[in-house]
Amino acid sequence: MSHFSKARATASGFTLAEILVVIAIIVSLVALVIPLNRKLRDRSYEVKCSNNLRNIGVASMLFGTDNNNKIPSTTHQRRLGGKSWSVTLKEYVPSIDFRCPMDGDKNRPYSYLINDFLTQNPAGAPELNYSYFHRVVAPEQTFLFAEAHDQYTSSDHFHFSEYNGLAIPIEVFATQVAHDRHSGSANFLFVDGHVECLNKEEIEKRLQNPQRSFVDPLPRTTLNSQ
């Protein structure tokens, strides 16, 4: 090929083979970037959800300070003159967000529910009354709020108190709690105010050992006096 022909080939731009190589590289990069972006997005949602629960914890503590150390109530306590936590906590932190950005139900007003073991005389165990912060023996081990399953929309609280002193099967727990919403894990707000993101294995381990006080606050004594 003459010098003139080489110059014309160079001036004509990329060859087909070179274009195909560039396209393959771009496709490979996109295949890497999309999952990374998804992971970053999901992680940001998890952090937002965790912050929501921390704010619920702060509001709950403020409510307790003003109400003789009482834990916020549920709709069941309206018969006792109380209001649901979804109403009272807004009075303490008006900007509080009750929704997880990954909640599959876009219509319900809140993604989080309160542990019914911590309500006054809960259904299934009416003799119990752990509805005051000082009655929870291990506040760092007992969860106060957790993420509700997408299809569990009928209440502002969970229904586990019938498992009084018993291990709760993970299959039962998973019908109410969104235990794998965040990449196989879920956020939990504990009575002492801290938040943990627990995977299914850790959740099941705590459920199978009632002495860990994960759901049931223990001990098995009836407390009726303030």
Could you describe the 3D structure shown?
With 226 residues, this protein is an alpha+beta fold. 35% of the residues lie in helices and 8% in strands. α2 crosses α3. The longest helix has 51 residues, at 16-66.
Unreliable spans are 3-11, 220-226
Treating each run of at least 4 consecutive H or I residues as one helix, how many helices? 5
- What is the succession of H and E elements? HHHEEHEEH
Portion in helices = 25-40%
Give the amount of beta strand, in percent.
5-15%
Query: What structural class do you assign from the helix and strand content?
Result: alpha+beta
> What's the overall average pLDDT, rounded?
84
User: What is the total tally of β strands?
Assistant: 4
Head-to-tail CA distance between termini: 99 Å
Adjacency order of strands in the biggest sheet: 1-2-3-4
Largest sheet: 4 strands, antiparallel
Specify Rg, calculated over alpha carbons: 26 Å
Overall morphology: elongated
Task: Give the helices and strands, then pairings.
Elements: H1 3-11, H2 16-66, H3 85-92, E1 112-114, E2 143-147, H4 170-173, E3 185-190, E4 195-199, H5 200-207
Antiparallel strand pairs: 1-2, 2-3, 3-4
